[in-house]
Design the sequence.
């Protein structure tokens, strides 16, 4: 049943885009946080998408071929900025704090991209649903 | 009943194939942001010819079947992209959307043909 597979494929993509949007929200929320070392400071998170195209992936939880799967989250490689803020309770012994490496502009663009891709898949589902209903109506012909 | 086996003719196979093509296109749209994904499509005419059994038949022991023609797999081909993203993705979302819309219209067209066939069979059965 090809038409009903479309629902699953689009759903997996919507799910992936939702995770992407969630990680963007998390990044935005943590944009202003600081840490006492570069390792401790927040790093922007991004999901890694992978296409489910191989048959063996069907054994690993995929219900259909062609959807999207998130294989992990990676930290943004951008270095955390060091700021002098001796009054901050988390400042190190030299009075420095490390800010998160979140770039708000990048995150906004990511969010818009995720929203658009989500909408695209909603559109796909709508069309497939209409066609399915029309196919059911064939008996009325 | 022979009448029902052939009532829909080619359209029955075409409808299946059109649904398959829509699935492939939906995969492209779903993977629009997947790094390294290559957009694919089905060569409808070619595959339908193969499904149909084509007009070329091996009617003699000496006839040689062309390697590519027998079944010819799923007929999945990679599309030639207008542009490739830095991450190796070749999905052109606007193109895929347009294709998907057209494929949906074609699916409906095939449905119409089948509806016509059904109406024809009904009329014949009623015998008015």
Sequence:
């Amino acid at each position: 049943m090809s038409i009903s597979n479309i629902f699953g494929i689009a759903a997996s993509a919507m799910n992936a885009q939702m995770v992407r949007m969630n990680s963007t929200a998390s990044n935005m929320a943590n944009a202003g946080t600081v840490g006492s070392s570069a390792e401790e400071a927040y790093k922007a998170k991004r999901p890694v998408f992978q296409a489910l195209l191989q048959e063996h992936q069907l054994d690993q939880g995929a219900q259909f071929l062609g959807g999207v799967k998130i294989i992990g989250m990676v930290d943004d490689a951008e270095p955390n900025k060091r700021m002098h803020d001796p009054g901050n309770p988390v400042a190190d012994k030299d009075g420095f704090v490390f800010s998160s490496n979140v770039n708000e502009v990048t995150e906004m663009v990511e969010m818009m991209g995720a929203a658009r891709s989500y909408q695209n898949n909603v559109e796909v589902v709508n069309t497939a649903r209409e066609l399915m209903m029309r196919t059911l109506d064939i008996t009325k012909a | 009943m022979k009448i029902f086996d052939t009532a829909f003719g080619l359209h029955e196979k075409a409808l299946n194939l059109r649904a398959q093509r829509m699935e492939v296109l939906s995969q492209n749209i779903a993977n629009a942001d997947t790094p390294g994904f290559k957009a694919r499509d089905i060569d409808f005419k070619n595959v339908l010819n193969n499904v149909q059994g084509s007009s070329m038949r091996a009617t003699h022991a000496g006839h040689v079947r062309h390697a590519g023609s027998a079944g010819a797999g799923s007929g999945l081909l990679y599309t030639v992209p207008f542009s490739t993203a830095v991450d190796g993705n070749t999905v052109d979302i606007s193109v895929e959307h347009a294709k998907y819309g057209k494929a949906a219209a074609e699916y409906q067209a095939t449905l119409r043909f089948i509806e016509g066939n059904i109406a024809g069979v009904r009329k014949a059965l009623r015998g008015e």
About this structure: Confidence is low (pLDDT under 50) at residues 67-72 of chain B.
